[in-house]
Amino acid sequence: MNIPARWRRYAGVTMVELLVAMVIGIFLIAGAVSIFIASKRSYTEVERSGRMIENARYAQQALSMDLRHGGFFGEAAPPGIDLDDELDDVEDDCTGRAAAYDVDNYVFVARTDGAGSAVGCIDDAVPGSDIVVIKGVRPRPMSDGDRDDPDDDDGVIDNPEGLDATRPYVLANAISGLLFDGADTVPTMSTGGDVPGGNAWEYRFMVYYIRAGNVPRLSRKVLGWDGASMRVITEDIVDGVENLRVRVGVDGDDNGEVDSYLAADDGAIDWGRVLSLEVYLLVRSVDADASYTDGRSYDLGGEVFAPGGNFHRTVVSFSVSLRNAKLLIRGNI
Q1: pTM for this model (two decimals)
Q2: Fewest CB within a 10 Å sphere: which of 128, 142, 208, 322?
Q3: Inter-residue contact 159 to 171 (CB < 8 Å)
Q4: CA 238 to each of CA 25, 211, 283: distance values in angstroms, whole numbers, following the listed order
């Protein structure tokens, strides 16, 4: 059919032109979708990796900070700290060197058995992983005795905020210390009293370990109040920590320097001569990545692990000098 010349400029596209346009449009949309998917995958991988690294750094920070304060009991040294007569037993307490109020063993490392149990209070750990026991006080006194009120000489702790009845404390001076419960009678600090001129410090007990589960995590046992008594309870610290191994630095000749490093389960360790710890953490991504298979091996202080699976992993290692232990050993205390 002939189209008049005046209408030709208003004619539509042909079928061929329409098909060509559709094909070009499909290619453009496919390219845009491909770029979007690649960007989404890249964002997911960066987020997963960033979260894993952040968890690793937080775990390192928590452990290293508490280890550095291990063995610090205010003015007193562990051998000079006694238990108050009114101090009650701790419910679900750990056993042996890990007992909550055994201040002489202020840093201790053990290895869990094949069932994930250790030191009498842990039964949900990753089998064969290490645990770290730390005891000490918060590095800030709760009071300064009667010195905060020069007109008061009643020998009672003068702390405007008061001591928390749900927490234990160490009352210490340069010679001796007394571990007591905030719910009991406060020891006296007057001349001739329980701890003359002492300061009160909040006592801390922690057992770090790897808690097993669909998502393993760094957890710790701490002292908590259950409404009637002090009890060992569990706190989860950070997700994705899959294993913990520790090498123990020991002073073998009493010169205040590390002479050798031993595995945590080495029966030859003299815990009174431990000066430093090398800590190894195997940290994994929280979520699995179906497009990834982990075929690598990881060295945790001389022991190699090849966990496999669809998780991304990294190893964090750091060394912590136990400065309070060094002071005690060099001071022959």
Answers
A1: 0.83
A2: 128
A3: no
A4: 48, 10, 10
Domain ranges within the chain, ordered by starting residue:
47-330
Tell me if 121 sits within 8 A of 221, measured CB to CB: yes
Q: What is the DSSP letter of 219?
A: E
Q: Tens digit of pLDDT per residue, the chain (333 long)?
A: 565 655 555 556 677 777 877 878 787 787 777 776 666 666 566 677 778 889 999 999 999 999 999 999 988 888 889 999 999 999 999 999 999 999 999 999 999 999 999 999 999 999 999 999 999 999 888 765 444 454 555 544 554 346 888 899 999 988 899 999 888 888 888 888 888 888 899 999 999 999 999 999 999 999 999 888 899 999 999 999 999 999 999 988 877 788 899 998 888 898 888 999 999 999 999 988 888 899 999 999 999 999 999 999 999 999 999 988 877 776 666
Are the C-beta atoms of 242 and 210 separated by less than 8 Å? yes
Distance CA 142, CA 199 (A): 7
- Strand pairing category for 241-250 and 199-211: unpaired
Do the strands 177-181 and 81-83 form a parallel or antiparallel pair, or are they unpaired? parallel
